[in-house]
Specification:
By secondary structure, this protein is α+β, with helices and mostly antiparallel strands. The protein has a single domain, classed as 3-Layer(aba) Sandwich (oxygen-dependent coproporphyrinogen oxidase), CATH 3.40.1500.10. It contains eight helices and nine strands. Helix 1 packs parallel to helix 5 and helix 3 runs antiparallel to helix 5. The N and C termini lie far apart (40 Å). The relative contact order is 0.15.
Length: 305
């Protein structure tokens, strides 16, 4: 898999501090993107099935400003119809420009310093959503990102598990993996970010959680860029390590038509959340990024009761 169509950043050593940090973050997100692609294709190869092992199709994406000016881009990787994954998308991007009025107002409401006077921004990150073929295997979401404006920088991200058929032992194992990643950096992070995820990944009009939770964080700027960057890297690695064993084990289990029906209805809830409430979906569409990349999180098939 080649990322040659995704323009390479300048070497960090040749840049001023702020630009060097952007370059380092962008390189990491590219590495994380590749880690997920390789791991998911290996999972496909290890699954016994009459179906061919799934492979990612790679599509370059670009962002254009309201005036049509170039604003960076990325790479959308989508696998459909695999042995393990019915549909999984893993996107990486690095975009820049001026925030559209709606996005600028949202940032101002969050009290981002100086954003009302200078709406320039830069953002890079990885976002993935996995919808599984086997209804006993949990759907999975993860994203991490760095955001910069002239007055501030911060990291954000998170991950949550979305099983149509919850298993307590899977939930416990997933959360244990996230807690381990958090505890290595701050013993208060897991409880804080788990509570934030419980609040964020909630569907108000259904009065229920989207799944069995995870972690969510945003606006992370402790004043120590290196520490916050290291934590964001740990979240990416930790989420992958927590999810892979669950996906591998559950994908081997037999399932019934009734379980498939429950999966399709649960996917409807997932689609409702992403279209109505997800902050990343709104920002992606409002900032002019490729709509296919933004909406790759939607399931390939869903039902409503």
């Amino acid at each position: 898999m080649s990322l040659s169509s995704f323009a390479q950043p300048l070497p960090a050593a040749a840049l001023p501090e702020g630009e060097a940090r952007k370059a380092r973050a962008e390189v990491w997100f590219r590495e994380l993107h590749r880690m997920f692609l390789d791991a998911f294709e290996a999972l496909e190869d290890g699954q016994a099935s009459e179906l061919p092992a799934g492979r990612f199709a790679l599509t370059p994406t670009e962002r254009r400003g309201e005036d049509g000016s170039p604003g960076g881009g990325g790479l959308m990787a989508v696998m459909r119809g695999g042995r393990v994954f019915e549909k999984v998308g893993v996107n990486v991007s690095a975009v820049h420009g001026r925030l559209a009025p709606k996005a600028q107002a949202a940032m101002a409401a969050r009290q981002v310093p100086g954003i009302s006077e200078d709406p320039r921004f830069w953002a890079s990150g990885v976002s993935l959503v996995a919808h599984m073929r086997n209804p006993r295997a949990p759907a999975f979401h993860m994203n991490t990102r760095m955001f910069w404006t002239p007055g501030a920088w911060w990291f954000g991200g998170g991950s949550d598990l979305n099983p149509a058929l919850p298993f307590d032992e899977d939930t416990a194992a997933f959360h244990a993996g996230l807690k381990s990643a958090c505890d290595a950096h701050d013993p208060e992070y897991y409880a804080r970010f788990k509570a934030w995820a419980d609040e964020y990944f909630f569907i108000p009009h259904r009065n229920r959680a989207r799944g069995v939770g995870g972690i969510f964080y945003d606006d992370l700027n402790s004043g120590d860029w290196e520490a916050d960057f290291a934590f964001t890297q740990a979240v990416g690695r930790g989420c992958l390590a927590a999810f892979l064993p669950l996906a591998a084990a559950r994908s081997r289990e037999p399932f019934t038509p009734e379980e498939r029906e429950r999966q399709l209805i649960h996917r409807g809830l997932y689609a409702e959340f992403n279209l109505l409430y997800d902050r990343g979906t709104r920002f992606g569409l409002e900032s002019g990024h490729n709509p296919e990349a933004v909406l790759m999180s939607l399931p390939p098939e869903a039902k409503w009761p």
